[in-house]
Task: structure prediction
Amino acid sequence: MLDSRQVKKTRRESSGKRKDRARANKAGAKAKRASPARTAVESPRIPVRGARKSKVKPRLALGAAPRRQTDAELAETRALAVEAMQAALDKHALEPILIDVSAMGSYTDFIGIVSGRSDRQVDAIADHLCDVMRARGVHLLGQEGTGSGRWTLLDFGAFVVHVFYHPVREFYDLESLWIEAPRVKLNVPPEAQLAQSDALYGAL
Result:
């Protein structure tokens, strides 16, 4: 049996231990709040001996503007685009329009649009245009709608040319999408201009 003095001593010891634990917990919580949040630190990569240096170039930073052409380069591109439209006129294309979109942040600098009176003429215009540009050292980067006779897109990078069967051109009306963009002046012969009554040659 424990006498009263031993019981009091045991109680004091237990109370002291509880207070010590409470103080330790409080101090630990305070230190945790004061310490900065832990973040995962990526260890630096150690180059492998004898490994070749990477030739992969970093991409442009997000939101970085693409390189714009100088005035001289833009003038050269304009001259090539005008020559492409002239090649279309050599094959009796109709209503050629060359739109300058260089200042509008587009995917290209010039957009050409011409029409043909038939499916066969559309293909003939596109083929001749490609031949003329190839002779000038300008190669086609992409082509869509080949062989359909209704629409062909010729992508030369700095400029593109749409060759339409005329009723299809009027249906899509691409010119209206660039209504605020300036037009490049072209020498269009009278036979390449359409009267309003001759706008449609057949059904789509």
Observations:
- The chain has two domains: 1-30, 72-198.
- Residues 34-64 have pLDDT under 50 and may be disordered.
- Helices lie at 4-34, 71-90, 119-135, 166-172.
- Residues 144 and 153 are 5 Å apart (CA to CA).
